[in-house]
Amino acid sequence: MTEEPAIRRALNGDKDALEEICRAEWRPVYGLIYHTVQNRAEAQDLTQEVFLRALRSMDRYQETEAPYRSYLLTIARNMLRDRWRKRELLVIPIDAAAEQISREIEPEPLALATIERETIQAALATLPEDYQRVIQFRIIEGRNSPETAALMGRSPEAVRQLQRRALAALRSALAQEVAV
């Protein structure tokens, strides 16, 4: 696609030019987003949102000298960063969640839950730091493999293997805690 003429036509309200741009640029934008979220429906929704934002800010694009694909990918990266920030704000620390649950249940189950939580925390504390971090990100916070990989500086496959080993080590540590 010759980018400049299509963009000029789009700026002048040519809907065919907008469609041409979307067809040409959809795959790279979708690929970036899908690689990050690992969910087809969510990636499609976010890709559509990228194009809507780009169309609404066409006048700002004119001020840049970047290729349009770079402009779209920048919008996509910013959306993904915003998504992660919002997600981090929604994560409730394990102690706060336990406290909230404790207000809603009877004393006996609360005591058992407290003992279980303390047992799990003690077993977690015996694990290597990487094991603790992967369990924190993947199990406690519910992050996906690519997101955890980015936070830990590893590949998603390495994170899955690390998680498998960490859970095996936690299982073993819990068995030792219970046996004591």
Structure description:
The protein is mainly α. The longest helix is centred in the last third of the chain and has 24 residues, at 156-179. The protein is built from ten helices and no strands. It folds into two domains: 3-90, RNA polymerase sigma factor, region 2, helix turn helix motif (Rna Polymerase Sigma Factor, Chain: A), CATH 1.10.1740.10; 94-179, Winged helix-like DNA-binding domain superfamily/Winged helix DNA-binding domain (Arc Repressor Mutant, subunit A, Orthogonal Bundle), CATH 1.10.10.
> What percent strand?
under 5%
Topology as a string of helices (H) and strands (E): HHHHHHHHHH
Count the helices. How many?
Answer: 10
> What is the radius of gyration computed over CA atoms, rounded to a whole number of angstroms?
23 Å
Count of domain modules? 2
Largest sheet: none
Going by helix content, strand content and strand pairing, the class is mainly alpha
CATH architecture of the largest domain: Orthogonal Bundle
Write the layout of secondary structure elements.
Blueprint: H1 3-11, H2 15-37, H3 40-56, H4 58-63, H5 68-90, H6 94-102, H7 107-125, H8 129-140, H9 145-152, H10 156-179
Notable features of this structure?
180 residues; mainly alpha; Arc Repressor Mutant, subunit A; 10 helices
Q: What's this model, at a glance?
A:
This protein is an all-alpha fold.
